[in-house]
Structure formats: structure tokens, C-alpha cells
Amino acid sequence: MQSRVNLVEVGTGGGYTVKLREYNCQCGSWQVSGIPCCHAMAAISHYCGRAAVKDKVAEFVHSSLTKSACLQTYVGMLHPILDQKRWPEVPAYILILGQTELMNPPPG
């Protein structure tokens, strides 16, 4: 494992480059999921020590995946629509197989 302040190469012979401060791994998994991949976990373990990984890993998880962000999602009150008659009317569309665009049905 070669390392600089922010840049870590995990694996042997051209492994994956991990940039801890940028929450970035060359494999792409960390950027897509928001959760550190195995390469990032190895880099975090290298910098924080194996004993501290459990406490430090939360700092490297995307903020939208935290418990507080999840709870914040449901802070506002959702008011149900009591009766189906009050639902807005949605126009009907027809999708013909082989076409990629929706077409309006003929009137009547």
C-alpha cells in the first residue's frame, strides 16, 4: 500500500487509487453507493488503525445515508387526500410497441 496525504494505492501491481478526502475510489463503487468500498475501507484502516475503523467509517459515508438525514426526510407532515374524487385527473397515453415516444389517443 503506497500512500501520500490524501492518495492511497490499494492492491499490488496497479491496484485501485483511493482519494479519501474526495470520497473517491478508482473502482467507482464508493461514488455510486455513497458507502466506502473494500479499497476505501483498507485505506481508512491504514490511516485510522484497525481499532478505530468502526468509529471513523461514518465520516466517510455520504451524508444522505446517515440516520439524521433519514429522520429529516419525515420531519414535515404529509396530509393524505381523503377521497379519490379529489385526485387530479391524469391524461391517458398510449405506448405502441417499437416506439420510444408516448402518443396522445384520438379524441372521443
Your description of this structure?
It is a single chain. With 108 residues, this protein is an alpha+beta fold. 25% of the residues lie in helices and 11% in strands. It is built from four helices and four strands; from the N terminus they run ββββαααα. Strands 1-2-3-4 form a four-stranded antiparallel beta sheet. Strand 3 (16-19) and strand 4 (24-25) form a beta hairpin. It is elongated. It starts with a strand and ends in a 35-residue tail after the last helix.
Characteristics:
single chain; 108 residues; alpha+beta; 25% helix; elongated
Range of strand content: 5-15%
Number of helices: 4
Radius of gyration: 24 Å
* Average pLDDT for all residues: 81
Protein name: SWIM-type domain-containing protein
Pfam families: SWIM (PF04434)
Organism: Acer negundo
Keywords: Metal-binding, Zinc, Zinc-finger
Chain-wise SSE layout:
Layout: E1 2-3, E2 7-10, E3 16-19, E4 24-25, H1 29-33, H2 38-48, H3 53-56, H4 67-73
Antiparallel strand pairs: 1-2, 2-3, 3-4
Organism: Acer negundo (Box elder)
Keywords: Metal-binding, Zinc, Zinc-finger
InterPro entries: Znf_PMZ (IPR006564), Znf_SWIM (IPR007527)
Task: Offer a quick outline of the entry.
The chain is an alpha+beta fold and about 110 residues long. Helices cover about 25% and strands about 10% of the residues.
